Amino acid sequence: MFTGIIEAIGSIRAMTPKGGDVRVYVATGKLDLGDVKLGDSIAVNGICLTAVELPGDGFWADVSRETLARTAFVDLKPGSAVNLEKALTPTSRLGGHLVSGHVDGVGEIVSRADNARAVQFKVRAPRELAKYIAHKGSITVDGTSLTVNAVDGAEFELTIVPHTLAETIMVDYQAGRKVNLEVDLLARYLERLLLGDKAAESKASGLTESFLAEHGYLKN
Length: 220
Known about the structure:
Number of strands: 13
Number of helices: 4
Helix content: 10-25%
Strand order of the largest sheet: 10-9-13-7-8-12-11
Largest sheet: 7 strands, antiparallel
Shape: globular
Order of helices and strands: EEEEEHEEEEEEEHEHH
Distance between the termini: 40 Å
Structural class: mainly beta
Mean pLDDT: 89
Oligomer: single chain
Strand content: 35-45%
């Protein structure tokens, strides 16, 4: 588990095809690896990766086909800057929100505009994730815990203060960039709870419109 508070900006040092997937070397910059052991988790742009080698100034990790297919990792290349966060410990401050490091989908930056000293971003999420994104709710973008300031269909707005811009890769975001999105865990669990006994049915993976209408959650 993670908090969504980025600890350092690292970079992709190398990417090596291996047995159908990819082994990646992440240079970790100012991130303190003194307490990191083999097998520990580190979030890279919000993707939970397992350290399989620790050369000293970074770590090697294996990236599965599943991760390559479901995240914006495929857009990274040697030299790409990435957000880094070590897994939280029982004594960590939970400054953001609970983040699993399991990406739900890939979004796209629609626009960027200055807003006093902050920057306003509009982001388009995949349609299937729109139901989990709420005004003033939490969302994780490339591993960064952020507050949603406005929602319009599958698009949402973020206001990013100077500190966050300086400490994350968001300073480089421009329209058209693909980003990893993880929705709030509570929204996911609430969805399953509302399914009740239907959750045990093989196709009951989400709240369909027919289910919502049947139980009075959709009203004209």
